[in-house]
Design goal:
With 816 residues, the protein is mostly beta strands. The protein has 3 helices and 54 strands. It has a 33-stranded mixed sheet that branches. A 6-stranded mixed sheet has the order 4-3-6-7-9-10, with no helix packed on it. Strands 11-16-17-14-15 form a 5-stranded mixed sheet. The longest helix is centred in the N-terminal third of the chain and has 12 residues. The protein is globular and about 90 Å long. The chain starts with a helix and ends with a strand.
Length: 816
């Protein structure tokens, strides 16, 4: 890995600097001042306002102490500037031309009016983001209540995104393994399982977007939604340093301090290495966190996470027409007692130890015509091992589980990815056309080992009812090549109508198939002042096949033994692992329609509907024929999701409020492959059936805001109320009784609050900042159980437990 990093850094720094002396017209640039007007009408500058520029490329910066900002090396084109400060916002459009600097005054206020420079006259503001594209901004990343202090924990701030009963993020009705996970446009999924496989210090995150249906043909290899994380650009002007979480949290058990509950220090530094040429960012984070299951004994109730996350980034301005970025992420992690809950004590859980690293380089070049070529190379290693906490035989009792976990895994995966995208200069024919074309090549490999140990099912009388025996441990090696090529056109027919067309082709060596995925969407201003926008789209999406799937036939087979009342074996049925009908790439058909309306100057309302049908999902099913029994893996699964959403954003003086209601339905086949052969597999595999998916929450109300209180306090409250998740009823044999997922947990209701205040401290003649505050989670201590006794033969049948209690967290950040 060190050799790869050295080679990549050498390549980055050795890019010919002679381009800078060429005779091309220079990139354009933007200069401006951010200000607001007081009650007397006098302008007042706004320091540290966040400036985001979106257009042919996306950049961001902050205004300095005088409210000034500058963004250089911009390809020609039209850009939208968005400025945000607590309770204030502003925006305008700017036309950037080669070799010139555009100077703009950027007023921030509460009128929600978008000014225009060199493009159109002043227009009413309606957010360009649709229900299919939601962004968690940098200010929210920094200030929102975030108990785990990672990016994923912020995704449920987006309507239609929930954390499911297994703790994983489910976006827009899709399994976590059906989603696309990107960091700086690079795929960061585990090639073996398809789940997310990277951890970043949250301090380097600029924004995270949830794209429900990305109709841009650049996106592929998923059937759900996409989470796209962008990291911050290194600071070319001056050094910044921050450090926080230096004080450990105690572990409180029944009023007694018993060791450390958590210790999560992190630090970040950014600044120039070569003035106006090369800048860097380095962020380090160590995490030791114990998370309790309140229903277990005091000293046997904690899962333990220990990790070290390092992120390094180098940003290089090669010339006015070329930029390059090199980033390196290293993220080893140990998660002990995975799957701990009321019915699975520590001794019966598995440990998951992971080692991961990623190196990514990006290069952008703009031609004299304004065309843009973007190149990206990424290499990822992700290894994982699981092993039990006890060597005792694994037994599934009615009330609890005993013995050591039944599964051991070793996974070593690699991915190499190369992408090229060419944005043509703007064309003019019956309107304006912004064309793009590109290709994406990815090679993945997976070397693994699987071992399964016997599993006994014990009834209420204490006698063994069934036993699952497995074959010998197996080793295997799988490889996969994926190639995609795509093209698209953004056609501006008129100032009120924009059409987007795209076509993507995906080839997968595992399925030996090539698929065409057309997409299209439109944006239509229903009124001349653009206060009402209609947005609609439809498209096809094809998912990747996780490498666990082609390796399935190499996994150890199983034999089911059934015992009589006297303890004798009454039947023995061997099941062979068989891939039935060949593997296919899952496919989703998606469409959406929405209307955005600026009802008042301070209120924007969105009404949206989307629907997705997914076929060819991977499902596991035990099948018995006249002469044989087999455990079948087949591309026969079907999922369905629909969502109706009403969202409002209201901005008043120095305050922003967001509220949404989502009515949704998520159904499908319930024997998803990954739940039986992922990191924490289930031992018992019953026949497949259809029903409500485990993370289905038909009704959800979400509201949150950024509020300024007296004393220069920043308040960020989050209220989340949704229908409880479904669960199934079983008997002592672990057979399902009645329809699956037909019962539900109680309604979830949680109110979280983050309170922060910034202080300026003079030190050695320089201004330093200290951010101080606290967060409280589940403020009203509402009972939100995470476990239920679903065995109808238990004396505790339908008893709920393991509710998250009210929790306080302090926050102290030093900035230099």
């Amino acid at each position: 890995m060190q050799t790869l990093i050295g080679i990549a850094l050498a390549m980055l720094l050795s890019v010919p600097l002679g381009f800078a002396q060429g005779s091309f017209p220079a990139f354009g640039s933007i200069r401006g001042d951010v200000f607001t007007k007081g009650t007397n009408g006098e302008p007042a500058v706004l320091p540290e306002a966040r400036i985001v520029l979106r257009g042919p490329i996306t950049k961001e910066t902050e205004s300095d102490a005088r409210g000034a900002f500058a963004i250089d090396s911009l390809p020609p084109g039209t850009y939208e500037i968005e400025a945000n400060a607590p309770g204030l916002s502003g925006g305008l459009a700017v036309e950037v031309t080669p070799g010139r600097s555009s100077t703009v005054p950027l007023e921030m206020n509460v009128t929600m009016v978008s000014n225009t420079v060199n493009v159109t006259a002043t227009q009413a503001f309606v957010a360009d983001e649709s229900a299919q594209h939601n962004t968690v901004s940098q200010s929210v990343v920094e200030n929102a209540p975030n108990q785990e202090e990672n990016v994923d924990s912020l995704l449920p701030l987006v309507p239609g995104v929930v954390r499911g009963p297994d703790g994983r993020i489910n976006m827009k009705g899709a399994q976590a393994t059906q989603a696309g996970w990107l960091v700086n446009s690079a795929n960061v999924t585990d090639p073996a399982t398809g789940g997310q496989a990277i951890s970043l210090p949250i301090d380097v995150v600029s924004s995270v977007q949830v794209i429900s249906n990305p109709y841009d043909p650049e996106y592929g290899r998923f059937t759900g939604a996409v989470s796209s994380v962008e990291t911050r650009t290194s600071n070319f002007d001056k050094f910044h340093f921050s450090i926080q979480n230096l004080v450990p949290r105690a572990r409180d058990r029944d009023g007694h301090i018993v060791g450390i509950g958590a210790f999560t220090p992190r630090t970040t530094i950014t600044g120039p290495l070569i003035k106006d040429r090369l800048a860097f960012t380095q962020s380090l984070e160590y995490r030791f966190v114990r998370t309790p299951v309140e229903s277990l004994p005091p000293l046997q109730r904690d899962t333990t996470l220990e990790s070290f996350d390092s992120f390094s980034q180098f940003d290089l301005k090669i010339s006015d027409r070329q930029t390059a970025t090199l980033s390196v992420a290293v993220f080893p992690q140990q998660f002990d007692y995975l799957g701990l809950n009321t019915f699975n004590p520590q001794s019966s859980t598995t440990n998951l130890h992971q080692r991961g690293d990623q190196i990514s380089t990006q290069h952008s070049y703009v031609a004299e015509s304004g065309a843009l070529l973007s190149s990206r190379f990424a290499y990822e290693e992700f290894d994982a091992d699981t092993f039990p906490n006890s060597q005792a035989p694994y037994q599934m009792l009615v009330e609890t589980t005993e013995g050591g976990f039944f599964n051991r895994q070793n996974r070593d995966t690699r991915r190499l990815e190369w992408q090229e995208i060419y944005h043509f200069s703007q064309k003019h024919f019956l309107g304006d056309h912004q064309l793009k074309a590109g290709f994406d090549f990815s090679h993945s490999s997976y070397d693994g080992r699987q071992q399964f140990l016997p599993v006994a099912i014990v009834g209420t009388a204490g006698s063994r009812l069934e036993q699952i025996n497995f074959g010998s441990p197996s080793s295997f090696s799988v490889q996969q090549n994926e190639v995609a090529w795509f093209g698209g056109d953004q056609w501006t027919v008129s100032p009120r109508l924009t059409l987007d067309f795209g076509l993507r082709f995906d080839n997968d060596s595992v399925t030996n198939s090539t698929h065409a995925a057309p997409r299209a969407n439109l944006t239509l201003a229903l009124t001349r002042n653009r206060r009402t926008l209609l947005k609609a789209g439809a498209g096809l999406f094809y998912d990747r096949v996780p490498l666990n799937a082609p390796a399935f036939s190499s996994f150890p087979d199983r034999t089911i033994l059934t015992f009589g009342a006297a303890g004798n074996v009454t039947s023995s049925v061997p099941y062979s692992n068989v891939i039935t009908g060949g593997l296919k790439n899952p496919r989703s058909e998606t469409w959406n329609v929405e209307v955005d309306r600026q009802v008042l100057e301070k209120l924007v309302v969105r009404v949206a509907y989307q629907q997705r049908n997914t076929v060819d999902d991977l499902v596991v099913n035990p099948e018995t024929t006249a002469g044989d029994s087999l455990l079948s893996l087949a591309s026969r699964g079907r999922d369905f999701y629909r969502e109706f959403q009403i969202t409002g954003q209201y901005k008043i003086h120095r305050q922003t409020l967001n509220a949404s209601y989502v009515r949704s339905k998520a159904t499908g086949d319930l024997n998803d492959f990954n739940q039986f052969f992922g990191n924490d597999p289930q031992a018992v595999i019953e026949p497949n059936s259809r029903g409500q998916l485990a993370f289905d929450a038909p009704n959800r109300f979400l509201t949150w805001g950024e509020l300024n209180a007296p004393g220069k306090l920043l308040l960020m409250p989050v209220l989340d109320i949704h229908t409880g998740f479904p669960y199934s009823v079983v008997n002592e044999n672990r057979n399902f009784v009645g329809p699956r997922n037909d019962e539900r947990f109680p309604r979830f209701n949680s109110f979280d609050l983050q309170v922060l205040r910034n202080f300026g401290l003079p030190f050695h003649g320089k201004e330093h900042t200290v951010k101080f505050g606290f967060g409280v989670f589940n403020l009203f201590n509402h009972a939100n159980p995470r476990d239920v006794q679903n065995d109808l033969d238990s004396y505790r049948f339908e008893q709920f437990s393991n509710s998250a209690v009210r929790t306080f967290r302090g926050k102290l950040v030093f900035g230099f």
